[in-house]
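Encode chain A's predicted structure.
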Amino acid sequence: MAKRRPVTIALPLTTPRLSVREFARSDLPLLRAFSDDPRVREFAPIESRAIAAAERADQPQRGARRSWELAVIVRRTGKLVGACDLALGAPGEADIGYMLAPRHWGHGYATELATALVAFGLGQLALKRVSAIVAIENDRSRRVLEKAGLQWEGLLRRHVRAGGRSWDCHRYAIDRAGWARVLRPAAPSPIIRGVKER
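Encoded structure for chain A:
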């Protein structure tokens, strides 16, 4: 079996309007505030991994990194508006996720962010496939994933147990062929900076 190569993402990643960077402990108050907003918790009942990432921001990373919980910043203002993640799974695959403060919904940031994560994973990281899981009731996030080029693959019954209930989820995914067909003709990758391998 081939040994997986350690991957280091060169941060920040930038899109036309957003910058994605590592969390700092100073992000915690604002991050906690919008993570606890009932409108966010409605479809994200599990404790945010972004908070844990911000809490350990000043600690050294141990071992090969397999996931990145990152802060989402509006470049024009420098304000923290959300969080996103990319987690490596099976060889050549990754799962993405995102969360935005409700006051920043409706501006296209989520679609811009999801599109950038897909382009980064399938482009610079040369992954074969990027997927995402979304609660079946979360129509807004489903539309974001579809705009980013991901396609519905199936329904996962009782996929998550949280908040005193079981959650059914949709799985969306896109592979490199789908990304080349759907996204490249429409617009080049919005990512400006790339990845280092060591």
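The longest helix spans residues 109-124.
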